[in-house]
Fold this sequence. Notes:
Elements: H1 2-24, H2 30-52, H3 63-86, H4 89-96, H5 99-110, H6 117-134, H7 143-165, H8 171-193, H9 199-225, H10 228-231, H11 238-250, H12 256-278
Amino acid sequence: MKAIVLNLSAWIMLPFMDAIAKYLSTELSFFQITWARYFFTVFFTLPFMFFFFKKNLTWSENPKLQILRGLTLFSANICFFYSISVISMAKALTLAFVAPLITTALSPIILGEKVCLRRWTAVLVGFLGSLVVIRPGFLEFNLATIAALGTGCFYGVYLIITRKLHSTDSPLFTLLFTGVVGTIVASFFVPIVWTTPTSFQWIWLAIMGIFACLGHILLIYSLKYADASKLAPFGYFEIVTNIILGYYIFNDFPDLWTFTGLFIIITSGIYIFNRESRL
Length: 279
């Protein structure tokens, strides 16, 4: 029960980070916001890790794979922050929920895992769910919807790499190293789009980093009390907070098609998680 409460608390926290990013995207570049998300997350996470989990911060056995993991999550964040600067948070997150389906589709190629016909069917059904949300031919298929799908694709690869690192590296080190990689990469390119934030914007950027930090720490603590496979379906609870914030702050409420596609994607994703946990 403790694991579920911690996990759900994390998924309540993280959409606040997205809402702040969307709010600031009207005045700042989405890339600069992504940089701030990484910078402040590392800024707040590093002292916490050093004082409370110093013994767990052992060096990686697969540094190249850790760097690749950091780059894939960074790419996922770039795509997602761009997408929510144009379309609603609920629609962007719904399309990003194809990540578990991407993981299942790529696991035979990258991890050499066997995927049965029923799991392939679930992947196909989930993909059809994303088409229900986008409705190509009926709505404008713009770069933001492609970026939202790109978020799911990058995050799916990120999950595969995380699975490979799980048996060798400390999860705490992995979390911190991923943040450091994102901060370093973003710092190289952010001067191109830099706009000096106001004091008010700096405060919101720092708060965004705090929400990201708290969310990921809660996720880490939840994994101390239960397996990742058992907690994975609770990640879909993020859409609840996402919809509430989108409605009250930006007056965005998903239409019937988005809800229908969301239901299809979540159903197929939960089926895949249940199959993996049983296997």
